[in-house]
């Protein structure tokens, strides 16, 4: 049974305190298993759940296995690469499952791009350089798109701005009702007065006021 874990809120100072041994549990890779190195195994799992932005232990172990595969160097998982990837994800601080998966993809794409950069620097063959450069360009564009997607996801719940005061110039158009403005959307309550119909409503209003 999957048990959801509460993710404690960590202060910014504690989040960047690299001197605390419990702040960043290490992952040890063996031939047939993955071990989380921490004096308290349960606490180590909880810290890694928080670092990876996972919903529970099952999700954490799933993401961890995927990161291990992405850390491979010479067909063998690399602990140093894995530690870098986990530390980078922890610094970005994914806030939900979508962000956890997206950020894991981001660090994996970054690792692949850096492998391409290494191969590009180590070859003098023009044809190989062109192929590697194309692959590195695609990976770099993918990474930039992932960063943009993360920003859009994090800003999707931004608060709406309500406009209460409206000034209309001569010859302009008026919107009758409450106007709510979002990032790229303006919506109004029913009752839009524009053109000749709008002028007629304003004229009736003025006559009623003078009477």
Written description of the protein model:
The protein has helices at 12-15, 41-52, 57-70, 79-92, 97-121, 126-154, 195-210, and strands spanning 26-29, 34-37, 161-163, 174-175, 179-181, 186-188, 192-193. With 211 residues, the protein is mainly alpha-helical. Strands 3-5-6 form a 3-stranded antiparallel beta sheet, with no helix packed on it. Strands 1-2 form a two-stranded antiparallel ribbon. α2 crosses α3 (57-70) and α5 runs antiparallel to α6. The radius of gyration is 27 Å and the shape is flat. Mean pLDDT is 79; it is low at 1-22.
Q: Strand pairing plus helix content: what structural class?
A: mainly alpha
Biggest sheet strand line-up: 3-5-6
Low-confidence stretches: 1-22
**Strand tally, please?**
7
Q: How would the global form be characterised?
A: flat
Largest sheet, in brief, is: 3 strands, antiparallel
| Beta-strand residue fraction | 5-15%
Topology:
Elements: H1 12-15, E1 26-29, E2 34-37, H2 41-52, H3 57-70, H4 79-92, H5 97-121, H6 126-154, E3 161-163, E4 174-175, E5 179-181, E6 186-188, E7 192-193, H7 195-210
Antiparallel strand pairs: 1-2, 3-5, 4-7, 5-6
Give structural attributes.
7 strands; 3-stranded antiparallel sheet; mainly alpha; flat; 54% helix; 211 residues; 7 helices; two-stranded antiparallel ribbon
């Amino acid at each position: 049974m999957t048990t959801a874990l509460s993710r404690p809120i960590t202060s910014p100072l504690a989040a960047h305190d690299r001197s605390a041994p419990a702040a960043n549990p290490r992952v040890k890779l063996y031939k047939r298993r993955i071990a989380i190195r921490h004096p308290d195994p349960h606490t180590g799992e909880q810290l890694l759940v928080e670092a990876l932005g996972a919903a529970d232990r099952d999700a954490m172990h799933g993401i961890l296995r995927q990161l291990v595969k992405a850390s491979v160097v010479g067909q063998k998982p690399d602990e140093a690469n894995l530690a870098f990837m986990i530390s980078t994800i922890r610094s970005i601080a994914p806030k939900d499952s979508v962000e956890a998966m997206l950020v894991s993809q981001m660090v994996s794409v970054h690792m692949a791009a850096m492998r391409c950069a290494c191969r590009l620097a180590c070859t003098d063959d023009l044809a190989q350089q062109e192929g590697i450069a194309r692959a590195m360009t695609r990976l770099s564009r993918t990474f930039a798109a992932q960063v943009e997607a993360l920003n859009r996801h994090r800003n999707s719940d931004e608060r709406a701005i309500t406009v209460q005061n409206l000034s209309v110039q001569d010859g302009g158009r008026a919107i009758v009702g409450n106007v709510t403005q979002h990032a790229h959307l303006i919506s109004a309550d029913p009752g839009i007065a524009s053109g000749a119909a709008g002028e007629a409503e304003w004229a009736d209003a003025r006559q009623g006021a003078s009477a």
